[in-house]
Amino acid sequence: MDIEFVRSRFIKHFDGQTGNIYFSPGRINLIGEHTDYNGGFVFPGAIDKGIMAEVRPNGTDTIMCYSIDMKDRVEFKVNDPDGPRTTWARFIYGMVQEFKQLGVQVGGFNIAFAGDVPLGAGMSSSAAMESCFGCALNDLFANNEISKWDIVLAGQATEHKYIGVNCGIMDQFASVFGQEGKLMRLDCRSREFEYFPFEPKDHTLVLINSKVKHELVGSPYNDRRRSCENVVSALAEHFPGKHFETLRDAEPDELLAVENEVSTEDYRRAHFVLGEKERVLAVCDALNHGDYETVGRMMYETHEGLSKEYEVSCEELDYLNQLAREAGVTGSRIMGGGFGGCTINLVSNDVYDDFISTAIAKFKSRYGHAPEVYPVVISAGSHKVC
């Protein structure tokens, strides 16, 4: 992000004064899909694209907001019981309300913000917004006494209560806790986490956005969650002496024991989840040894499982994965819930240019539009810039 650009817009819209500048990143998830609601692990990292905001207290009870990207201005009172109707302004309103719940005496302020997280690419621009605003509120009104976890949970609560999105905590967690050159293994059950080195000197991490989002009949995510719950119930009945809270508690031989007691569809989906749990742990070990070939192999296995067992891929994503294999890309898989969106690719530098040009040309030839390409670097989490 361009600091001078954000500052110039702030000065223009708020009487020539300046404030403090804050930045929060978007995120990627290297591996660990559909594991969060199964009590498993995710493996995100903050990236070098995000949301930047300039903020200055104004001594009133009014919050004056300017979205640089939207070219839109919204004002509301700190104690407004309803808040603004404009969706982007409700992220600011929600964080203010959640900080007040934490006992912070939030006053009025001026804020201008912009972002370079591509919308709809699965890099969590909304979590970057919440984390950025939380970082600013903590610095300006709470003397930085609000914990990082409280900022994460305030962001999640903002999504739930003021935006209407029932999200988990991975996106906000990655944006707040990210560190340069490190990915994080987050235990979705206990919230324990650990940093792992990610500095592939001879590889580039790149997202390729299919720009496809399929509208499916019914509730595909709920269906898959229900499949997992069905298998957990079968496990609990088959092994009455063991407590099964989620699929996280199951071992492969236990799943095999109930194969004939659940539907084929439910079994396949549970089989993917258990395999994904092991793949996340394998990637952690591989990164500690600088073994990016194993990391890439696990990514391909995850894509195969998401496509064939969990059935959340689509033709376009499978084609991007196929092109990666044909080009000798180290690793490639669907990133996110599926049914469209991006693949995340770990590409050795010696094949990068050929892979990108070939993927763009062949995808456009087949589907009539070019995919979008976003190289990313694992970077620092939310922080005050100046």
TrEMBL record:
GHMP kinase N-terminal domain boundaries: 91-179
Gene Ontology CC annotation, any one: cytosol
Occurrences of domain GHMP kinase C-terminal (ranges): 286-360
One Pfam short name: GHMP_kinases_C
InterPro entries, A to Z: Galactokinase, Galactokinase_CS, GalKase_N, GHMP_kinase_C_dom, GHMP_kinase_C_sf, GHMP_kinase_N_dom, GHMP_knse_ATP-bd_CS, Mevalonate/galactokinase
Keywords: ATP-binding, Carbohydrate metabolism, Cytoplasm, Galactose metabolism, Kinase, Magnesium, Metal-binding, Nucleotide-binding, Transferase
Domain Galactokinase N-terminal: 9-57
TM regions (residue ranges): none
GO molecular function, a single term: metal ion binding
Gene Ontology biological process terms, A to Z: galactose metabolic process
Domain of life of the native organism: Bacteria
EC number: 2.7.1.6
Family note: Belongs to the GHMP kinase family. GalK subfamily.
Descriptive protein name: Galactokinase
Organism: Prevotella micans F0438
